[in-house]
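Standup, Tuesday
Yesterday: got the pipeline producing structure tokens again.
Today: sanity-check two examples.
Blockers: none.

Example 1:
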Amino acid sequence: MKKTFTVNISGIVFNIDEDAYSVLNDYLQSIKKHFANTDGRDEIISDIESRIAEILTESITDTKEVISIEDIEKVIKAIGLPNEFEIDEEEPIAKQRSTGRSGKETKRLYRDPDNTMISGVCGGLGAYFHTDPVWFRLAFVILAFAGVGTGVLIYIVLWAVIPLAGSTAEKLEMRGERVDLSNIEKSIRQEIDNLKDKFNDFTQEAKNTYKKKSEEHRDEVNNIRYSVTPDS
């Protein structure tokens, strides 16, 4: 009889046999080592662990309560090994999808937190149907006026029933992209770069504002100086 261990992965508790535990532990250690010097390391690992927990949850049934090594092999096949995913920033997404990687490519409907005016409903619909969210926003506005509030009611219902894409894995599913190591890392890198760009823009704007205020203040001081200087 094999020993079993109780492990907590992304907040979900699993019973796992000894062989599976050993392989899973080695796999997680290889992932942590691979991303050790990567920006956003903690978020990447957290999203990977969430994806692992999701896959293992699918393996649990009423008659099967212990995770086996076959289940861990399924995880590794779905997510991939770290050395398989050296990202080429110039490589198109379409080409990455055609390389035979076995990550999950299931599209799901979420609210998009990165493209939102109220709750992200239209942004999520746009991502799911590959359509500009503006068209959905326009449709809700038209329904709101033409349907005597119907558009508002539909929007509120969708807001209530559609979950928010909170993790990187969920954002990938929202766009219909594979949830594997490569895309998780790439997506988080892009988010970090976007934050850096926004921060740099904010810093530059603050510098320009400060410079403008300083020039205005200097002009005011000069005007005051000239106004109080006695005639010679």
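Example 2:
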Amino acid sequence: MPRNRATASHLFVPRKSTRAQQRAARAEFARARTKARHAQPTAERPRNSGTDADLQPVYPVSGRPGPASARGGKLRLPKHRLTTATASGAYPFLAEAGLGAEGVFVGRDLHAEGSFCFDPFALYNSGRIEGFTNPNAVLCGVIGMGKSALAKSIATRSIAHGYKIYVPSDPKGEWSGLAEALGGQTIALGPGLPGRLNPLDAPARPAGVSEEDWTSEVRKRRLLLLASLAATVLKRDLLPMEHTGLDVALDLVVADAELSGTVPLLGDIAHALGRPERLNAALGGQAGSLGHATDDLAHALRRLVHGDLSGMFDAPSTVTFDPDAPMLSIDLSRLGSSGDDTALVLAMTCASAWMEAALADPDGGRRWVIYDEAWRIMRHVGLLERMQQQWKLSRGLGLANLLILHRLSDLLSAGDAGSRGRVLAEGLLADCSTRIIYRQEPDQIPTAMSLLGLTGVEAQAIAALTRGRGLWKVAGLSFIVQHLLHSKEKQLYDTDFRMAA
């Protein structure tokens, strides 16, 4: 037994021993074991009895050397080839190359354990990501998950990169404080407020565009606005004779404004539509008599002049567009909320038209246009048509549109499958190369998978996302990103202040 204990001590060497010391220890152990076998042939195999924490086995961590290592066999597996597109579908969050370090810092890529930056203009111009065809984005998430903070963070940090921010309609007034804090401009509209916007204002003609072409473009925009307003109030599509009536009434009002040196107003359009004899005289019998076909149009537009929206869009604009302001928002929170949001939609249409006129200059630089609470827009075809035009012209005008929703199913509220509204809503989503999805309720997962083409792994991810975390799908790439906020940003973006004591 003493001999066994002495032999067992050779099983250990100091932890930080060199390879030479380990080889010497193994050789000494072999000699001691041979000697022990000769002395006691039937003795038990020595056991390790060392308890010193600074000692380790003679054999390396990789195991015993030679044939006794149990590594002599060869494992052969059949080869399997697949494309990177298929591999990314099976493992969507592994080995992504990222979007680069250019652009606005958003937060931390949880799978790559690195910073996540985003700049739609830089991605579009670089062409590094296949399928990134436009700078538009959609952001959706349930209440309280931090999507509003993300939108405001992107807006605030984009200003530091030289971009300007425009919010055509702010139904809850959440962007007013942010715009003022950043040295921007806020226009508050509502009953009793002094602000006035004339949605028929003509923007300045861009350099390089002829006078004739620009006059035709302004006329098209005004007709689209008038048709949207009338269709929203009437809650139906316009008839062909009604479109003709709008054409003639607009031409008459513009001609009168040029003679008097004034600007055309919505009240002038409503007044001209109420005089069918003048419209028929202007037609000259080319399309027959309009008769009383424009009566509904006249009453519909009268709501903007004498109805619940009077005093906001029936006079020349009292504010001017400042192209150098870092942020401009139009606050519509004073309009209130009710079961019928027609008044708010009409105001959003007029405000958007006024701002779009200012955004028409392609030399205005790169700009974000943010549509907050966009679920209100989905039920109104007129607004969707205006937004579609904005989406299609985004690249030419240097605009990146951001659509903010609560659920992706809000897109389905635009109408039944195959309807004009549904086609427009789904077209807006298709024209968004960037989709940011915060947590969705379980009953919304199938809709999200259908509209966005999510994999099973991605669907499971969005159902379990915590506050501030979102799934970013940028063209064909997927990321799970934790949005990071500075303490001052948290105070500035707080949308729960009314819930506090």
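Quick observation on example 2: DSSP finds 18 helices and 13 strands in the chain. The longest strand covers residues 164-170.
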